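Researcher: Please translate sequence to structure tokens.
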Amino acid sequence: MITCFCGVLAAYAMQRFALPLQDQFFASADTALGVNWFDIAYWVDSHPVIQKIFKLAYDSMSSQIALPLVALAFSNRLSEVRVYILAFAIALTFTTVVAGLLPAASPIALV
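Model: Translation complete:
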């Protein structure tokens, strides 16, 4: 909980830099890799079942973070809990710094 709380504070602190959004840069990079967000958005919009699956996956993000931690803790694997928390903190820090230096609204907002 403390790691997540600190991550949220750091994310808001990074937004204070107010760097310009990089959505167009990321869209160009995606296009260079063969990803067309317009086609993806149209395809997903025309498949309600896929929309529901994606929404369920997105809504389960917090559970996906917490479940391994709970499972490891209840199975008394404390060294793995420490490794998981450390790996999570490193990933959260890296993601926060990159997102702060290269802010973007989202592909869907751009589309």
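Researcher: Any highlights?
Model: DSSP finds seven helices and no strands in the chain.
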